[in-house]
Design goal:
Length: 85
């Protein structure tokens, strides 16, 4: 088996991923075709701790750069005004 959930919609949680050998996987496929796969036992399970997906920064870098530029302009303009006054 594998983890086939879409990463963009996967919530942060712990997921148990069952691992089968060839015979167990064949039994699982047969059981899924018959409609009941709860009887098949995996060899072992891997616990995947999924912390969620990265959705991007909270603020865009263009906005931060613009705010810094405006702040620097204001500081420079007010310092020039004080010097010329």
């Amino acid at each position: 088996m594998s983890w086939t959930e879409d990463l963009a919609t996967a919530s942060s949680s712990n997921y148990d991923i069952p691992v089968f050998d060839e015979e167990g996987f064949a039994q699982l496929r047969k059981a899924k075709r018959d409609g009941d796969s709860s009887d098949v036992r995996p060899l072992f399970k891997i616990n995947l701790s999924h912390s969620g997906t990265y959705k991007g920064p909270w603020l865009q870098t263009e906005l931060i750069a613009s705010l810094v530029a405006v702040a620097l302009w204001y500081i420079a303009y007010s310092a020039k005004s004080k010097l010329t006054a």
